[in-house]
Specification:
By secondary structure, the protein is of the alpha/beta class. The protein has a single domain, classed as TIM Barrel (Alpha-Beta Barrel), CATH 3.20.20. Helices cover 42% and strands 15% of the residues. The chain has 9 helices and 7 strands. It has a 7-stranded parallel sheet. Strand 1, helix 2 and strand 2 form a beta-alpha-beta unit. The two termini are 30 Å apart.
């Protein structure tokens, strides 16, 4: 875990050198060490606050992500989510940089009706503190069921719906669904993507990744890459533990590709 000072230095570097203007902070829920299992809640919240503060200091957007994963259905921990987002939204109510992603990747057969029921409980908690905050809501099937939202949208303003893709596994078929949703008026935000396989590992599929980002740029859809770490997997951006002023040799293959893409498309 990088310190608050290293986070600020890293975010400053990413903004200046890469052109990045947003970061995403994942609060895991049901995994080992997670908020809803055996994790230290106060320490976890401090880490989130440190990340928010580092992003705000560098005039960046920051997404606070309730990282639903092995818990499948976000309703499993709805009370904890309301507690968490109520506290964070209260603290950062007047900070426009902060976006609230209330569920990461509904999966395991979780339907849009279930996600919608969850969102209708959590969004009012955020809005009671931060009335103008942008809220991101996950979609079924690992955030690939965007068509369900188009058919039955939430009746709430300032809400966007998330799509996730991993370029080596998710190709034209998912891009077509995203474009259809955009054309139907569904607000879309790609809050997680990788240039690798969906496992988060493997090689970088440059051709597919370029096709994805070119499409998203065409439709002015924002995107956040996974992930800002030096974990030994293909989707980690860093190959070393230099988390202040990384140079090209500190980057993984995905990190090198993404930096080049962003620098060429500023």
């Amino acid at each position: 875990m990088v310190s608050a000072v290293r986070e600020r230095r890293l975010f400053e570097n990413l903004k200046r050198d890469w052109g990045i203007n947003a970061v995403r902070i994942a609060m895991y829920c049901a995994e080992s060490g997670g908020y809803c299992t055996d994790g230290n809640k106060e320490q976890l919240k401090k880490t989130v606050r440190d990340g928010i503060d580092a992003a705000v200091k560098n005039d960046m957007y920051v997404i606070v992500d309730w990282h639903t994963l092995s818990d499948n259905d976000p309703n499993m921990h709805v009370d904890e989510a309301k507690e968490f987002f109520g506290e964070i939204a209260n603290e950062y109510a007047d900070v426009p940089n902060v976006l609230y992603e209330i569920c990461n990747e509904p999966n395991g057969g979780t339907t849009w009706a279930q996600v919608k029921r969850y969102a209708e409980q959590v969004i009012p908690v955020v809005r009671a503190r931060a009335k103008d905050a942008v809220v991101l809501v996950g979609t079924p099937n690992w955030c690939q069921g965007i068509e369900a939202v188009t058919a039955d949208p939430l009746s709430v303003d300032n809400v966007m719906h998330t799509v996730h893709f991993y370029a080596a596994d998710h190709g034209q078929w998912l891009r077509d669904k995203v474009v259809a949703a955009i054309k139907a008026g569904t607000p879309v935000f790609v809050s997680e993507f990788g240039a690798t396989a969906a496992s988060g590992d493997g090689g970088v599929d440059v051709k597919s990744a370029d096709a994805w980002l070119d499409m998203l740029d065409k439709y002015d859809v924002s995107y956040i890459i996974w992930n800002m770490s030096d974990k030994h997997e293909g989707s980690a951006l860093f190959a070393t533990n230099e988390a202040r002023d990384p140079i090209e040799s500190d980057l993984s293959a995905e990190g090198q590709w993404y930096r080049q893409y962003l620098r060429e498309h500023r």
